[in-house]
Amino acid sequence: MANKKMLNIGIDLGTTNILVYVSGQGVIFNEPSVVAFDVDSGEVIAGGQAAYNMVGKTHGKIRVARPLREGVISDMEAAKALLKYIFLSLKNRKDLRNSYCVICCPSEVTHIERDAMRDLALQMGIGEVLIEEEIKAGAIGSGIDIYSPEGSMVIDIGGGTTDVGVLSLGDVVLSQSIRVAGNYIDQIIVGYIHKSHNLVIGQKTAEKAKIETATLLDHVEFNSEFRISGRDLVTGLPRAIVITSEEVRELLQPVFEEIGRLVMSVLEQTPPELAADIVDNGIVVNGGGSLIPGVKDYFEELLNISVNIADKPLTAVVEGTKVLLQNKGSYLNNKHSRE
């Protein structure tokens, strides 16, 4: 009897969204990294988008949790519950024992947390499990041949962290990370609206405002407005204001200055031969933050190096898992397959 074809599963365990790729099916899950529990029983009642829709709107019998915050697992039980929720939703659950799974997580996640995720996957019946860094998978998913002897640099502006990495010969040569990314920008917008407009808003509202108005381009090139509703600090009643792209651009400037310093720090530590490759090949930016208008121009002006935005910046990591699944993350496997 012929052996069953191995089922390959790639998971991008991001701070903001979790994406799941299954061989033969494509990306089957692309939803917020949020899970909702029944407080009394502790059972999961919703995950992904359904749980995200509950944020800020629950009563005392429902707890909504974000497993990852600022690139680290802040709630291990919630992380395990969300992964279990996804594994149970797979169509071919009976084939899990003949499967290989790559879980990509932020570089800040500890070895203990990685081991816990690996153990959970094995407990769910997964045959083999590999834990990889998002920066590596994201580089592959952005179209970079990280297995070549040429150096490449990737800037991943995600939800919880911004990761900057230099890769060569199939692995990360050096990388650094800061907790300044999409969620941090949301918090800055919340604070600004509070202080400047005496209005209390939630992070979901701030995120919508960011998506609609965020830009690094000057006022002449890009201008938009967004209506924000919240609770008036003085009267306690609901009230709405309008925020402009010019206001948000001023909030973004110091954020990207900090990211720029991180990139400069990594470049300063990059070995000369790899640095020369980066000058020739340019830098790739992925993650949700790369979608902000003006990001490419900002980094090119700062670094005097060509910069490209990944074709699919939001799904680059999970796209990269396809290659990692084919060669089980090994440089040698990839090397032999190309000879």
UniProtKB/TrEMBL annotation:
<keyword id="KW-0547">Nucleotide-binding</keyword>
<comment type="function">
    <text>Forms membrane-associated dynamic filaments that are essential for cell shape determination. Acts by regulating cell wall synthesis and cell elongation, and thus cell shape. A feedback loop between cell geometry and MreB localization may maintain elongated cell shape by targeting cell wall growth to regions of negative cell wall curvature.</text>
</comment>
<dbReference type="InterPro" id="IPR043129">
    <property type="entry name" value="ATPase_NBD"/>
</dbReference>
<keyword id="KW-0963">Cytoplasm</keyword>
<dbReference type="GO" id="GO:0016491">
    <property type="term" value="F:oxidoreductase activity"/>
</dbReference>
<keyword id="KW-0560">Oxidoreductase</keyword>
<dbReference type="GO" id="GO:0005737">
    <property type="term" value="C:cytoplasm"/>
</dbReference>
<protein>
    <recommendedName>
        <fullName>Cell shape-determining protein MreB</fullName>
    </recommendedName>
</protein>
<dbReference type="InterPro" id="IPR004753">
    <property type="entry name" value="MreB"/>
</dbReference>
<dbReference type="InterPro" id="IPR056546">
    <property type="entry name" value="MreB_MamK-like"/>
</dbReference>
<keyword id="KW-0133">Cell shape</keyword>
<keyword id="KW-0067">ATP-binding</keyword>
<dbReference type="GO" id="GO:0005524">
    <property type="term" value="F:ATP binding"/>
</dbReference>
<dbReference type="GO" id="GO:0000902">
    <property type="term" value="P:cell morphogenesis"/>
</dbReference>
<feature type="binding site">
    <location>
        <begin position="159"/>
        <end position="161"/>
    </location>
    <ligand>
        <name>ATP</name>
    </ligand>
</feature>
<dbReference type="GO" id="GO:0008360">
    <property type="term" value="P:regulation of cell shape"/>
</dbReference>
<feature type="binding site">
    <location>
        <begin position="288"/>
        <end position="291"/>
    </location>
    <ligand>
        <name>ATP</name>
    </ligand>
</feature>
<dbReference type="Pfam" id="PF06723">
    <property type="entry name" value="MreB_Mbl"/>
</dbReference>
<comment type="similarity">
    <text>Belongs to the FtsA/MreB family.</text>
</comment>
<comment type="subunit">
    <text>Forms polymers.</text>
</comment>
